[in-house]
Amino acid sequence: MSFELGLRCRDCGKEFASAPLAGCDECFAPLEVAYDLGAVAWGVRRDDLAARRADMWRYRELLPVTVAGDLPPVGGTPFVATPKLARALGAKQVFVKNDAVNYPTLSFKDRVVAVALRKAREFGFEVVACSSTGNLANAVAAQAAALGLTAYIFVPEELEPAKVANTLVYGAKLIKIAGNYDQVNRLCTEIAASLPWGIVNVNLRPYYAEGSKTVGYEIAEALGWRLPAAVVCPMAGGALIGKIAKAFEELRQLGWAEGDTRFYGAQATGCAPISAAIKAGRCEIEPERPRTIARSLAIGNPADGYYAARLIGESGGWAEDASDEEIVAGMRLLAETEGIFAETAGGVTVACARKLLATGKLDPDQPIVLVITGNGLKTLDAVAPRAEEAPVFAPRLADVQAYLDTAAPAEVTAV
Ligand SMILES: *Cc1c(COP(=O)(O)O)cnc(C)c1O
Ligand SMILES: [Zn+2]
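# zinc ion complex -> structure
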C-alpha cells in the first residue's frame, strides 16, 4: 500500500487531493507529494527492506504508487567505492552512485518515469508526453511502450543522435522543436492545458520528481544508513538534488538514518543559472541561454532552481560549473581510473568535484558521494577518438612490434 496523503504546495502549504496538477492555484509554486510518515513507521521496519528485491520499489511505502504485480526492476544501481578516483581528486574516500547502468534506458530518468507513468495509468491517461533534454525522452519512450501507452516526446532540435535513436526505436512519436529546452517546455505547458495528456514533467511533475528520491534511499542504505558528509549532484531543472535531500530528511524523521549532508551542485559553465546564483549569494535564478556539450543539463530556466539553490546554501554546501574541456577531462578521468563510462553530465560532476576540492569548498577528509546519472554511450561525440589514439597496422607481427617498441617500457613488458 501507499502512504501518500496527497499534494502540498511547497510555498503556501495548501493541500490538494492526488491529481495531475502542475502547480498551486493560489501562489503558482510547485507541488510536492506528502506522506503519512507516522503510518510508514508503523507499517514497515527498516530492517525488513533488505529482504525485498534490490530495486527502487523496495522503498514503496515512500512512493506515491500502489505497488501491485511484477514491476520492472528499475533502480538498485551499483554504489561503488572509487579509491583510484579519490586519489586522483585528492580526497580520502569517494563513492560513485552509478545510475549510468539504470534499467531500462541507462539514466536516472528511468526512476522518475517509472513513478510518473504508473501515476498516469492510475489517472486514466492513454497518452503521455514530456519535454526533454534527451534522457527523459528515452525513459518515457521505453516505459510507455512496455505499458502500452502512446508517447509524444518533445525535444530541442539539437540533440545527440544516440538520444534520438533511443527514443524512436520504441515507436514513440518524436517532435523536434526549433528552439532550446526552455521553449520546448513552455510549449508543453500550453499543451497540458489544452489536451487530455499526462505530461510527465508538467502536470505529472510532482510524481515524476518523487522517483528521484530513491537515489537517496539507496545511497543511505548502501552506507549502512549513515548519511554521507557530502553529495555532489548534477543539476538541470534542480529536482534530483532536492529529492535526494528530501529522501535523507524522511529517513531522519523515520529514525532510519542519521548524519548531516552538505549538498554540492554541479553544472556546465555554458548553462549554470543555479551555480551562478550560489556564487552570487542569492537563491533567485537569472535564466540563461544554454551553450554546452552537456545537453542533458542544458536548462536555462530551471523549474526547481530556486529550491535547489536554497537547499545548497542551507546545507552548508556550494556549487561549481565546468567548461566543455573540463567536462571531457572529467569523463576521461572517471573512465580511466574506475572503468565507468558516464555521459557528459557525469563529466560535469567529476570536474566540479575536482574544482570544489581544489578550492577547499569540499572537505577532502570526509566521505564524498558523486551522483553519476547517465551513460557515456549516449554522448559518444564528446570523447570521439583522435586518429593517433587508435593506429591501424597490417596484420603482421613485425609492424605491431615496431609500434610497441616505441611505447613506454612500463606499458609493454615482454614475457
Ligand atoms: C535530467 C538529468 C539530470 C538532472 O536532473 P534535474 O532533476 O532536472 O536536475 C542530471 N543528469 C542527467 C544525465 C539527466 O538526464
Ligand atoms: Zn501555494
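# post-check
The longest helix spans residues 239-254.
Residues 9, 11-12, 14, 24, 26-27, 29 surround zinc ion (ligand 2) (CB under 6 Å).
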